[in-house]
Specification:
Pfam families: Esterase. The protein is α/β, with parallel strands linked by helices and 376 residues long. It has 2 domains: 59 residues; 279 residues, Rossmann fold (3-Layer(aba) Sandwich), CATH 3.40.50.1820. Helices cover 40% and strands 15% of the residues. The protein is globular, with a radius of gyration of 23 Å. 42% of the residues are buried.
Length: 376
């Protein structure tokens, strides 16, 4: 039974209801004022509370997809930071590639029925040649991609990175970004663009912050080189940096901004949705820089603006003035920006660090991205 399945959530809910009813019925019938009586009543209350907490926790997890599977949950519960090289194919890899391309069940939920009218959503796994890393992904192709007179046309690409722990199904299914992209396109607010929704946590449970870890996974290289190469091999995409952008929420926003700033030869724009701009170090990351302050500084976007030449890219800082803890950090980033780096802002008066706030910021982020990308 899957961790996020309706059957599992329903089972825990039924057990919680049974526990409540049993507690109400049994409590008056437990006799005795001694240790045994008190222990029995206490045990009954604890069991009831545990059943309720489990049901609520499973429901919240199923909604936000903090843990997408039992393996994900159990690995994160180990308390260990694991270093891995990602998924390796049994056969030699000659190039970065998409291992498979299939139409997911989410397509019908999003109303994507006819490719040349609605576009098409594909589910895939991206495997990198340089790094040996793999990541689950969804790719949305706009309706224009399938029109006969566009058979030789290339399209701009937006790589959308999840936050941590993240799952691209949240971006595609819960936040319905392909559907939003189609709505914005039909309304004439954006140009036709290819969206690749990619899981940024490629070596779970470790949060690599899209970093090339010394002696560990080369995640920055994966997203800066392997992912674009795999998409170029599979789709008609922009041939130069002018048609490539990145965006993401939370840590995905940090990754998007970092990749654009450190790889301005690959990307021209990045949208940071409720993202942060300093190099993070906590229990989920471990030491990403092998104790090197210099390496950590190079991954700190505030430090880079203070100590490195600004890169020729455009960045959108999308956030909430009230309710977003990292807003002062975002303001600091904006204040430090200078040409040729161009930084624009999209601020909500009030919000939070949650899917609802992200949802309010996505439309403006898509429109801004559309204005920055062009196929040359």
């Amino acid at each position: 039974m899957q961790l996020t399945s309706t059957a599992f959530i329903s089972l825990l809910t039924v057990l919680a209801v049974v526990a409540i009813v049993a507690t109400v019925w049994l409590m008056p019938r437990i006799n005795g004022r001694g240790v045994r009586g008190h222990a029995a009543r206490l045990g009954l209350l604890v069991a009831c509370q545990l059943a309720i907490v489990l049901a609520l926790s499973a429901g919240v997890n199923a909604y936000f997809l903090f843990y997408a599977s039992w393996d994900d949950l159990l690995a994160s519960g180990s308390g260990q930071v694991e270093v891995g090289k990602g998924k390796q194919g049994s056969a030699p890899v000659s190039r970065s590639e998409l291992l498979s391309r299939s139409a997911p069940e989410l397509s019908s939920q999003l109303g994507l029925k006819t490719p040349d009218r609605d576009g098409r959503l594909e589910q895939t796994t991206i495997r990198g040649l340089r790094t040996g890393l793999s990541s689950e992904a969804f790719v949305y192709l706009p309706p224009d991609y399938f029109k006969a007179d566009n058979a030789k046309r290339n399209f701009p690409v937006v790589v959308v990175l999840t936050g941590y722990p993240g799952d691209p199904k949240v971006l595609v299914g819960r936040q319905e970004l392909p559907k939003l992209a189609l709505e914005e396109l039909r309304a004439g607010r954006t140009q036709p663009m290819i969206y690749a929704f990619v899981q940024s946590t490629v070596v779970p449970p470790r949060d690599t912050e899209c970093t090339d870890v010394p002696g560990g996974p080369q995640v920055e290289t994966f997203f800066a080189q392997d992912v674009p190469d795999a998409l170029r091999a599979a789709y008609r995409v922009a041939p130069t940096r002018d048609g490539w952008g990145l965006m993401g929420p939370s840590s995905g926003g940090y990754c998007a901004a970092k990749l654009a700033m450190r790889h301005s030869d690959k990307f021209t724009a990045a949208g940071s949705v409720s993202g942060y701009f300093k190099a993070l170090k906590d229990a989920t990351t471990g030491d990403l820089w092998a104790g090197s302050k210099a390496l950590r500084n190079e991954n700190d976007l505030i430090w880079r603006l203070e100590n490195r030449p600004p890169p020729p890219v455009s960045i959108l800082v999308a956030s909430a003035r009230k309710g977003e803890k990292k807003f002062p950090e975002a303001e600091r980033f904006v204040a430090l920006a200078k040409p040729p780096l161009q930084v624009d802002t999209a601020y909500l008066a009030e919000g939070g660090h949650n899917l609802k706030t992200f949802g309010r910021l996505w439309p403006e982020t898509m429109r801004w991205m559309s204005s920055k990308l062009q196929v040359k």
